[in-house]
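User: Sequence in, structure out. Go.
Assistant: Echoing your sequence, followed by the structure tokens.
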Amino acid sequence: MATKSSKQTKTKSVQKPVEQAPLIPIRANINWVNQKEDGNVRATASLNIGGAFAVHGIKIISGAKGDFVSMPSYKSGDNYKDIFHAVTADARQQMNEAVMKAYEQKLSTEITEGVDMKMK
């Protein structure tokens, strides 16, 4: 009995382009600024995400490569684990920018207010 040879056709998998998620409005508030030169924590902040979520316990840390944003975390053994973090790089960048912009504004306001207080 003769068998027919079947040709297997390979289908190419087409990857769809990854769509960027729409930007969610994020507001940052600086809760505390370290007025002393000790320690590496420069400030603490909170985020309001889309008017629906709040994140507290964010820190602005002074590191070897400059200041950076550290999300809330807890210590587990010798390591730290994030309590909250962004899932995408775009969301992380948006949150970091909001916090750093609020921090810079707070510093410039405090400098301006300090100058005003000295003039009185």
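User: And one key feature?
Assistant: The domain at 26-74+83-119 is CATH 3.30.1120.40 (Arylsulfatase, C-terminal domain).
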